[in-house]
Design a protein that fits this description.
By secondary structure, this protein is mainly α. Helices cover 62% and strands 0% of the residues.
Length: 61
């Protein structure tokens, strides 16, 4: 198990039954990045990865 799995597990446990839009998620990522600028690059990579999940021509994996 990766260290980050704990955060993912907590997210699922606390908010797993909620429904949100991707617009809401995008806004939360912006807020997080504003508050934690050191994470700008990982958040950008994560957002790009999510955006391109169904793109067969993308090699971000």
């Amino acid at each position: 198990m990766y260290f980050t799995d704990r955060g993912v597990e907590e997210l699922e446990a606390r908010r797993g039954d909620e429904e949100v839009t991707l617009a809401w998620v995008a806004e939360q990522l912006r807020v997080f990045t504003d508050l934690n600028p050191d994470f700008e690059v990982p958040i950008e990579r994560f957002a790009t990865w999510l955006a391109r999940l169904d793109d067969p021509d993308d090699d971000l994996e």
